[in-house]
Amino acid sequence: MGSGSLNNPEKEYHLEVDFGNEQNLKKAIKISQNLGVHVKSFQSSMYIKEGEEISKFLALIGAGKAVMNFEDIRIQKEMRGKVNRLVNCETANLNKTINASVLQIAAIKKLQETGKFKKLDDNLKEIATLRLENPNMPLIQLGKLLKEPLGKSGVNYRLKKIMEIADGK
Question: For a Cys staple, 112 with which of 1, 55, 117, 127, CB 3.0–4.6 Å?
Answer without folding.
Answer: 117
